[in-house]
DNA sequence: GAAAAAAGTTTCCTATAGGAAACTTTTTTC
DNA sequence: GAAAAAAGTTTCCTATAGGAAACTTTTTTC
């Protein structure tokens, strides 16, 4: 139980580390943002004015930060220019990261052992990633080895590499999975994987948030 | 080459299907939104006023939709109440889906065959998911079997189940991967996996966007 | 390269957002 | 349940956003 707690904390920490790219400060220059969107779409102020129903003088003033647009105006901008409002606030360059690569050799992941699982975190060199892959040897044999459901944000994909696994979950009957079988589920639903084969099963687990 | 194109289209379609949950209409009631955030945080107008530096009369008027706040005011709201601006626009309930589950038995995925790969899509019963898992038998033996790099949004995780694989990529030397090895990379970087073992290799591939 | 056209900015006015204080409604205290 | 306190709304004023038209700057035409 206290072991369970520890594991949970461990995962949330790792996940947080993987995501942190959220927003910068709220010091966004909405005018710059708008101008960039308009010019990128090759629109003149007159055209944008027709599309949004706003006076071109208004658009000009917004773009030059002479005026702070009201929410009503921002809605017109969004529908007229066909952008969703959040886009007006997101930092100009949403620099899609590109070119990273991280190889993990068999049995060389970062190990993390609990009483129920022996986790092997993969691709740990990379932070800010969308998925978190790890290979786990399942020691647990019954629900009681845990004390409570595992529950966290996001979605999970489980693939059986060795042995036989039973996926217990809050809203479904236990499902028995053999080598090659896989299951995709919402991690917010209580879930647990236990070994039911003679030897401890080995699975590949991937979490996304 | 035309085969490559087909594959690409196929993937983007699947990915689009998996994501579509974006935004609803831009008919958001920002006042309702704000009131919900404030009450959920158990703040009075006076407290919110102190936190944001806005007059409580202003807050009241915004909440009752008597006034359309300017962007400047929205920034104060965001920093003061410690929310990121997009949150002011997102529909009230961001219903975290919970309780879905989809099992795919070994060799029972949805098959999609090209000249280079034999894909087996997993968990296809579920849409709107963060990850897209598939198992692929790699027929390809060299870069020339493709004609061009594979490149698409998002990140990818590759795990070798059978055989020996070489991951070719735009910015790295080819990497040879054996059973149990895995690699995580940005899919925006040109990439290809080819078999280098006698028999065609089998890999598990997971994409997230 | 001068004239015309297009694109963008500024001016000036009106409509409305933001704030202080008065007021009303709701909740708490005893 | 009356009095006091707290929470929220409305009023009234000032500051500023939004729009039409004049104006300036930039681009295109010949």
Automatic annotation (TrEMBL), chains A, B:
<feature type="domain" description="HTH cro/C1-type">
    <location>
        <begin position="34"/>
        <end position="88"/>
    </location>
</feature>
<protein>
    <submittedName>
        <fullName>Transcriptional regulator, XRE family with cupin sensor</fullName>
    </submittedName>
</protein>
<dbReference type="InterPro" id="IPR014710">
    <property type="entry name" value="RmlC-like_jellyroll"/>
</dbReference>
<keyword id="KW-0238">DNA-binding</keyword>
<dbReference type="InterPro" id="IPR013096">
    <property type="entry name" value="Cupin_2"/>
</dbReference>
<dbReference type="GO" id="GO:0003677">
    <property type="term" value="F:DNA binding"/>
</dbReference>
<dbReference type="InterPro" id="IPR001387">
    <property type="entry name" value="Cro/C1-type_HTH"/>
</dbReference>
<dbReference type="InterPro" id="IPR010982">
    <property type="entry name" value="Lambda_DNA-bd_dom_sf"/>
</dbReference>
<dbReference type="GO" id="GO:0005829">
    <property type="term" value="C:cytosol"/>
</dbReference>
<dbReference type="GO" id="GO:0003700">
    <property type="term" value="F:DNA-binding transcription factor activity"/>
</dbReference>
<dbReference type="InterPro" id="IPR011051">
    <property type="entry name" value="RmlC_Cupin_sf"/>
</dbReference>
<dbReference type="InterPro" id="IPR050807">
    <property type="entry name" value="TransReg_Diox_bact_type"/>
</dbReference>
<dbReference type="Pfam" id="PF01381">
    <property type="entry name" value="HTH_3"/>
</dbReference>
<dbReference type="Pfam" id="PF07883">
    <property type="entry name" value="Cupin_2"/>
</dbReference>
């Amino acid at each position: 139980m206290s072991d369970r707690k520890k594991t949970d904390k461990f995962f949330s920490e790792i996940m947080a580390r993987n995501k942190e790219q959220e927003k910068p400060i709220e010091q966004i220059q909405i005018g710059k943002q708008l101008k960039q969107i308009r010019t990128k779409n090759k629109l003149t102020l007159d055209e944008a004015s027709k599309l949004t129903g706003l006076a071109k003088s208004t658009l000009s003033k917004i773009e030059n930060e002479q005026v702070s647009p009201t929410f009503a105006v921002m809605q017109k901008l969004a529908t007229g220019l066909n952008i969703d409002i959040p886009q007006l606030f997101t930092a100009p360059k949403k620099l899609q990261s590109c070119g990273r690569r991280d190889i993990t050799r068999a049995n060389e992941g970062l190990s993390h052992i609990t009483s129920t699982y022996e986790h092997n975190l993969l691709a740990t060199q990379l932070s800010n990633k969308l998925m978190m892959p790890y290979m786990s040897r399942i020691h647990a044999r019954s629900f009681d080895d845990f004390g409570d459901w595992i529950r966290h944000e996001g979605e999970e994909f489980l693939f059986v590499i060795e042995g036989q696994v039973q996926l217990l979950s809050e809203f479904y009957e236990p499902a028995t999975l053999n080598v090659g079988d896989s299951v995709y589920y919402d991690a917010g639903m209580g879930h647990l994987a236990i070994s039911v084969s003679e030897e401890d099963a080995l699975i590949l687990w991937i979490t996304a948030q």
